[in-house]
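Case study 2.
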Amino acid sequence: MKLKRLAIVGLGSIGRRHFRLIKNAYPEIEIIIVHHGTKCKEESMAHLCVSSIQEAIENNIQAAIISSPTSFHIEQAIEL
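Prediction:
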């Protein structure tokens, strides 16, 4: 199965770095950002920006990168 749609959960410095690396290496992948913070330039380059993991799931993501603060990782991984 070829990856077509990916979510990045959290858009701090690590999330933005993952976004840029994936966008450069695999421009055909649609990236959905799950983010609650201040606006950043990556948001305008994403396929879609949503405010919850559930919204990302409803948009048929196939995989996710959790790049939020570590205290949220387990909860977010369970939801995914």
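The chain is about 40% helix and 20% strand.
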